[in-house]
Amino acid sequence: MPGPRMRGDGRRARSPKKTLLRLLGYMRKYIPILVIVLICITVTSYAQTRMSTALGDIVNDYITPMIEEGSTDFSGLAAFLIRVAAVLGSGIFCAWLYNYLMVSVAQGTQKVIRDEMFAKMQRLPLRYFDSNTAGNIMSRYTSDIDTLRQMVSASIPQCAASIISLVVISVNLIRTSWVLCIVMVFTVFVIVTVTKFVVGRSGKYFLEQQRALGRVNGYVEELINGQRVVKVFNHEETCKREFDEINDELCRNAYTAGKYANAMGPINNNLGYIQYAILAVVGGILAVSSGGSALKLGSLMAFMLLSRQFNMPIAQISNQLNSIVLALAGAERIFDLMDEEPEQDEGYVTLVNAEIDPDGTIHETEKHTGHWAWKHPHQADGSVTYTELRGDITMTGVDFSYVPDKQILYDITLYAKPGQKLAFVGATGAGKTTITNLINRFYDIEDGKIRYDGINITKIRKSDLRRSLGVVLQDVNLFTGTVMENIRYGKLDATDEECIAAAKLANAHDFIMRLPEGYDTMLTNNGARLSQGQRQLISIARAAVADPPVMILDEATSSIDTRTEALVQRGMDQLMEGRTVFVIAHRLSTVMNSNAIIVLDHGHIIERGTHEQLIAQKGTYYQLYTGAFELE
Q: Which pTM does this prediction carry?
């Protein structure tokens, strides 16, 4: 038995039938509209077929009798033509109506899928975004979704109309001449067999085309963001060669898919002409040999027109099948995202505002008091206990690796008492940022324990854990919006006064007031018009307005010049006062006043102590401080 069908990325391919059924499930709420659409399609198909049968009726029932009788009374013919015109008019109206209705179905379906994709994306772990480029993810929202719109708004209605047309035309063909129908069955079988072969060959290339398009989008997006680096290192030609390689892959897949798809029309047309010629010869022989008793002249004309109409739906279905195959390839990529394993959160301990009595009793409150507590429900008896949030964090025997067989951290054991400032020092890749990622639970540890105020962090709900941690990253992300809105991102219900106070604390207020519209200045493209230092100051102000009990500063001042750093450091000292703080810094001057300095090397803690203690040891930290060797 052959194994399961595999895709280019090594994952098991989805069944196209299951993908289509899942996609159609999003249209379930539009069933009443789709019923109307189906009725309109039926009326339209009947009207189109009536055109051909009407010609046979005109010749057989009106023209031939009038010629034989020498009559000039056109009243019967005129009445018949009026009835035919009414049928055609209704067909035109129904064709407009169902196309109009399908627009709302297509756009509504698109919206639901986009909403579900975006909602799912918010629940995905960081690991997913580390392994997928932004451009590749974006292509699912753009090109893949657009193929679905094309399928829902055009391909599915066209296929439905074609199938109904085939049924209506087949009934009329049998009524006109069952003998010619038998001849026609053999030619149709050949056309269907060829169509099935070509569509089967093109399907896999359409899927590879969508994947290659995602890779092209990802590369272009990456190069746009890194254009300055490209120019600084004169990598334009290298980038062109790399782009040519992935673009060639897209071109090959698109060419092969298009080659088969574009061959469908000419092949079906030529087979249709051959069929037409065969039917004309056989029909002519029947009409002449029987003297019109087996097949009248008008009936032969109607049959020939119907046979041409019969081939049109087949050609339309074969053409739309290419669009459907392309859409299903896009849908498979979309469902890949939707079916990704979401970030797991089994935590049940939550963070609440608290009031603390003189005797130490903790009460939960709705208002912000500046005090927080961990709310710990007990399932056994339904009781609730509260633990004051003090910022006591410990790590015991922690091992971690991002990917199997490549361990990053080894037996990390450390502690940060409430109000302490703990600094991490080490070369790039030593594991400094990884430790803070584990505290945030962006990734889960493989072995060991991390406790927050004595509570295993796996028991704390992730959203509450992260709300208690203020983070300032080396890579700043500013969103499209005003400066005020970007600062308020740290606390959505913060007042303007609180945001301004946070900016003053971070020493960002002065430069903000020099902007064209002050705090109302609009920032776009990640704050491209601001200097790197100014962007970092806004990021620090964002963390300050959140007023968290624990701060994580990951190279927070690395992008700020020395003079600005001195100003920021004073603000940071105020921000850090009374809080547990984790600092990652290459500039040792920023960590000298830490309560403890942790020196890391390839995932191992090799030294721990205050600045004075580590200098006295004359170990790695001493060598770094005296410049015997530098961090890389």
A: 0.68
